[in-house]
Design a protein that fits this description.
Blueprint: H1 2-5, H2 14-36, E1 39-43, E2 48-54, E3 59-62, H3 65-72, H4 80-93, E4 99-102
Parallel strand pairs: 3-4
Antiparallel strand pairs: 1-2, 2-3
Amino acid sequence: MIDHLSPHRDQMDKGMFDALVNIIGCYVLEVGRREHGGHFAYFEPGKHSVLVVPGPNFQVALGAFDVVQNRLNGSPLHSTWMLYRAFSEQVRAAEPETSKTFGFFA
């Protein structure tokens, strides 16, 4: 969907663009929640929700909105598929004391 919409970015107003970022970002987080469990939390610096998957001795978090936004803006370097894959692999292989967050950029 993102690859289909990205070439039409210039035709979207800010409201439409922001709505697409939110819809697609929420979808990615919900897929993660259904696959790995966890809960949603608000991440103030990004002003978006994140999915937090706690384990016995670890925590892995996923924020998808920055990646979705960059991808919709045409950046081929930002892939929701690669982001989700890295997050999912980390949840499955998390060692004790692991604390990682995926999907945010400085």
